Amino acid sequence: MTRKLSEILRTILENKDTLRILQLIYSNSEGVVFEDIAGALDEFKKVEVRGHVKKLIELGLIEEKGGIYFLSDKRDSRMIFHILEKLGIVENHEVSKIRPKGQEFLKKVHEYGKVCTIVVHHNADPDAVGSAVALALALKQINIKVKVIAPLGMSAQSKKLLRSFPYPLQENFKTTEWESMGFFIIVDTGSSTQLPDELVKFLKTNKNYGVIDHHSEADLTQNAAVSIVDKNARATAVIVQILLKALNIKITREISVFLAAGIIADTGFLRSATNRELLAICELVESGVDVGKLMKVLHIEKNYSEKVAMLKALRRAELYSCGKLIIAFTEIGSYEAAAALTLVRVGADIAIAVNIQKNEIRISCRMRQNVTNDVNMLELFKNLENVLGGKGGGHPTAVSFNGKIPENWENAKKVLLKKIEEKIGEKIKKI
Ligand SMILES: [Mn+2]
């Protein structure tokens, strides 16, 4: 779309029939047929309606496929609908789509005497805590008795968030209390591995819980009384934000802060945010969030020993080239994963950090995304199973390996280099 945003908006707003057609298509996420459009504007001739539809297609706002008209997913249209939503002309279709589910959640909470407990996962990150607290503050507005529990603790980042923006989270509680805790809402996970076994058993037996999450469906999601899962959302907080809008709950400044914290943290300080998250953040800024301040709150300084470990990892790096690839090895007494990641960040394509102990060897490997197609490190590490007496796990780009024969490391290194050489088809050279 090469047209300017202002130009498109002017064209849409100029003609109320164009606008009506757009509203109609926007509110029907599955799309509409031409007869529906013509029917909604029956005082006009079909020819004129066709003209309006054609104009909307030209503007890149709608598309037609097999006789069905639906919203175009071209990039700029999200911004346009964001503005139309602000002007009160259309309702965000994500909002209308989520509303029935939101009402189901509320119905459940009412069934349990308007009492509700929000649960965050193991070592809860700011997305879990932020989503939970935002939801709790929102439910309080509509007179629901709510508490937030973190039965398996919180991350350092979350604790720092709560020091700046206090909200009481209960970490310890008796299993006998559960019966009186109403309907449970689990946020930011759908997996029972993230919660205490006894709680999982209680929830699965009573089916007295719902899930709001942005990960793939897991056992808890599948057993839930009601669930909202949106894998396209980069943070659960994005889903909660839409949910609150759908339920007409005011997003106060305090709620905004917690939602923004979730989005900022889960997108790696917005580095992996899409337009959807950025527009969500914009709205939260309008509600009073100071993004700069929040980023400072969420920033965790590395501790002294980790800083020293990273610098030592760099000082001890042993470098090889294979064609254009740079391979870095380093030895370190702890923080292997962070060390491998640091080497990749400063320029290595493949980084391998080893921690050699008396009877044990721990290896962490990270690599740049661009090498993924050529080398599968998880596969290459299989060749070390016999050499080092151990096993590896992870992904093709992030492997951790634990072995029991540390004295064979030099051999293992040769095996790895030889295998990389074979895969790339270029000679390995020491740099
Ligand atoms: Mn998350």
Describe this structure in words.
This protein is α/β, with parallel strands linked by helices and 431 residues long. The longest helix is centred in the first third of the chain and has 19 residues, at 93-111. The protein is globular and about 85 Å long. The protein folds into three domains: 5-74, Arc Repressor Mutant, subunit A; 95-298, inorganic pyrophosphatase (n-terminal core); 304-430, Roll (Diaminopimelate Epimerase, Chain A, domain 1), CATH 3.10.310.40. The strands form three sheets. It has a seven-stranded mixed β-sheet with strand order 14-15-13-12-11-10-16, sandwiched between helices. It has helices spanning 5-14, 16-27, 34-40, 46-58, 75-86, 93-111, 126-141, 156-164, 197-206, 219-223, 236-246, 253-266, 275-286, 291-298, 304-315, 336-346, 377-382, 385-388, 409-424; strands spanning 32-33, 62-65, 68-71, 115-119, 145-149, 169-170, 183-187, 209-213, 226-229, 318-322, 325-331, 350-356, 361-367, 390-395, 398-403, 428-430. It has 19 helices and 16 strands. Strand 7 (183-187), helix 9 and strand 8 form a beta-alpha-beta unit. 48% of the residues lie in helices and 18% in strands. The mean pLDDT is 92. The structure holds manganese (II) ion.
